Recover the amino acids of this structure.
């Protein structure tokens, strides 16, 4: 019998909780051949990421059994036998009845808490530590994704690099046509812009349209588009899904299934990404990238942003590292940000070749710590021996 895993995911907002859990579940099922059940509380979000998902309590997609859950679901019924491994994603909490069943099992499942991704130094010291349940004879292990040895690494499918490296001019042209556009002119700078609607987009668009480099900005359908339309004084998306002024052409592109999201990054020179999953995908894409971090209370996210900037800046020439920090701070509206997004962009763009070389080295460095799904499977295999 293949080892069985339950992954529990609550969708907080946006797409990343579902995006990360889906990517993990799919890889454990397809590459590790585990029996995987993904319990998710908001199917419509998953359906945006995978078009085969339908609104039903139970379905199998890409060999993952997807079950819709809320606390009322009685998971102890016979057709939901406990698995060997339970992954609780992002502190979502497990149904009380399920935890009780775990505690009373002759051999309780191995319980892991998959934590949010952070570059903060304390992560490696907490990774794989057990935490006792306050009331029941159970313990839950912290499992942290990360960028350094001693963490769980980052999600990466085994064929990702081969697919990335095989994605050439023809595939890029096909991506643009599938998105409803002609391939950009050879000399144009192409930028993917996936960010929260709070991003200071106007300043960036202004810099691009008044700049000397023809710039094509691909913005996926979503809340950020309103800021782009406002900048152009457009009431709605034009029929040709283009907004053009000066040196800037904004192209509206569809929100594509997650399996094709990488193609957006691979079809552009620079990537503005956000949250957790697209942030990781831009790093695997070896692109210069700008991260719009998910906002948190009391600006805790600024600490996370700077922790990553410090790590990422290792080995990067000082002028390029400074330009990178200024643009990331401006984009994330960090208090005391030195320069506006527009002028920060000009400095950043002047170091694009250096940043591209650094992005290639960084992806190779990350690959050295192994993929998250593989590290997780290895940890569980060792614990279940
Ligand atoms: O959508 P997000 O902002 O999700 C966030 C983060 O996960 C954050 O950590 C979490 O705390 C918060 O949700 C609740 O950003 P993220 O993580 O990049 O997830 C976006 C997903 O959407 C990612 O899997 C890529 C996918 N995507 C597509 O599949 N197709 C698309 O066209 C686009 C633009 C994105």
């Amino acid at each position: 019998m293949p080892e069985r895993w339950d992954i529990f995911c609550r969708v907080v907002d946006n797409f990343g909780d579902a995006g990360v859990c889906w990517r993990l579940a799919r890889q454990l099922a397809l590459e590790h051949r585990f029996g995987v059940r993904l319990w998710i509380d908001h199917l419509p979000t998953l359906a945006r990421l995978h078009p085969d998902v339908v609104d039903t309590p139970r379905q199998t997609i890409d060999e993952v059994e997807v079950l819709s859950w809320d606390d009322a679901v009685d998971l102890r019924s016979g057709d939901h036998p406990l698995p060997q491994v339970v992954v609780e994603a992002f502190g979502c909490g497990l149904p009380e009845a399920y935890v009780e069943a775990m505690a009373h099992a002759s051999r309780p499942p191995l319980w892991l808490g998959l934590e949010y991704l952070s570059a903060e130094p304390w992560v490696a010291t907490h990774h794989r530590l057990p935490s006792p349940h306050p009331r029941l004879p159970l313990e839950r292990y912290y499992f942290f994704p990360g960028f350094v040895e001693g963490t769980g690494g980052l999600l990466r499918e085994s064929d990702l690099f081969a697919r990335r490296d095989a994605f050439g001019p023809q595939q890029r042209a096909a991506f643009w046509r599938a998105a409803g556009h002609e391939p950009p002119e050879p000399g144009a700078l192409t930028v993917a812009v996936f960010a929260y609607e709070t991003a200071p987009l106007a300043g960036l668009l202004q810099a691009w349209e008044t700049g000397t480099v023809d710039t094509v900005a691909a913005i996926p359908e979503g809340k950020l588009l309103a800021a782009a339309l406002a900048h152009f004084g457009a009431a709605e998306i034009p029929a040709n899904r283009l907004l053009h002024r000066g040196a800037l052409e904004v192209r509206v592109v569809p929100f594509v299934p997650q399996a094709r999201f990488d193609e957006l990054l691979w079809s552009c020179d620079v990537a503005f990404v956000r949250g957790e999953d697209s942030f990781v995908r831009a790093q695997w894409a070896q692109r210069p990238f700008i991260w719009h971090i998910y906002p948190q209370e009391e600006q805790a996210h600024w600490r996370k942003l700077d922790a990553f900037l410090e790590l990422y800046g290792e080995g990067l020439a000082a002028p390029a590292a400074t330009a990178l920090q200024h643009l990331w701070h401006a984009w994330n509206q960090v208090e005391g940000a030195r320069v506006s997004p527009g002028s920060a962009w000009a400095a950043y763009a002047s170091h694009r070749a250096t940043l591209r070389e650094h992005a290639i080295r960084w992806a190779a460095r990350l690959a050295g710590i192994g993929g998250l799904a593989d590290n997780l499977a290895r940890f569980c295999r060792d614990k279940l021996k």
Q: What stands out?
A: The mean pLDDT is 95. Residues 4-154+369-383 form a domain with the Rossmann fold fold (CATH 3.40.50).
